[in-house]
């Protein structure tokens, strides 16, 4: 009877850097928490109607960055991030999203705190959201 070999990596994704793995000579990959972090960042930066065949997936953050910098806009960004993560990332148990205005640098600092399902460590994603023309 053969023993089934299990790996510790539960979630996998390719790295967008398209680096080559030094041993396997294949595209390097992201696993577990790093893969979920990348997915969260991609969801936050995706606009509605940007993904083919899935116009519902997206976040309105990029539209809000052109509004006046204020606590109300920061709250709207926070709610939009919470909505997109809760609706489209089932691997995440969201704990908190904190968005602070940074008027000196013309942007917002967003900190997203969450647990990956079945992983006991708290994961933090920090992003600086700014207008890009």
Verbal overview:
The structure is a single chain. By secondary structure, this protein is α+β, with helices and mostly antiparallel strands. The chain has one domain: Roll (Nuclear Transport Factor 2, Chain: A). It is about 25% helix and about 25% strand. It has a 3-stranded antiparallel sheet with strand order 3-4-5. Strand 3 and strand 4 form a beta hairpin. The longest helix is centred in the middle third of the chain and has 18 residues. The model has no long low-confidence stretch (mean pLDDT about 85).
Question: Which features does this protein show?
Answer:
27% helix; 3 helices; Nuclear Transport Factor 2, Chain: A; 27% strand; 133 residues; 5 strands; alpha+beta; 3-stranded antiparallel sheet
What is the number of helical segments per DSSP (H or I, 4+ residues)?
3
User: Whole-number radius of gyration?
Assistant: 17 Å
**Unreliable segments of 5+ consecutive residues:** none
- CATH C-level class is Alpha Beta
The domain tally reads 1
CATH architecture level-2 label: Roll
Main sheet record? 3 strands, antiparallel
Strand order of the largest sheet: 3-4-5
Net shape: globular
Number of strands: 5
Oligomer, anyone? Answer: single chain
Mean pLDDT across the residues is: 85
Structural class based on helices, strands and sheet pairing: alpha+beta
What is the CATH fold-level name? Answer: Nuclear Transport Factor 2, Chain: A
- Calculate the terminal CA-CA distance, rounded to whole Å: 61 Å
Sketch the topology as an H/E string, one letter per element: EEHHHEEE
| Portion in beta strands | 25-35%
Helix percent reads: 25-40%
């Amino acid at each position: 009877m053969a023993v089934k070999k299990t790996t510790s990596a539960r979630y996998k994704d390719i790295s967008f850097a398209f680096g080559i793995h030094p041993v396997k000579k294949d595209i390097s990959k992201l696993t577990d928490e790093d893969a979920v972090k990348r997915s969260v960042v991609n969801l936050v930066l995706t606009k509605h109607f940007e993904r083919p065949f899935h116009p519902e997936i997206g976040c309105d953050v990029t539209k809000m960055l052109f509004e006046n910098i204020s606590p109300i806009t920061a709250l709207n960004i926070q709610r939009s991030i919470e909505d997109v993560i809760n609706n489209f990332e089932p691997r995440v148990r969201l704990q908190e999203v904190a968005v602070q205005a940074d008027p000196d640098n013309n942007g917002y600092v967003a900190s997203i705190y969450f647990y990956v399902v079945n992983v006991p460590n708290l994961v933090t994603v920090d992003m600086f959201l700014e207008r890009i023309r």
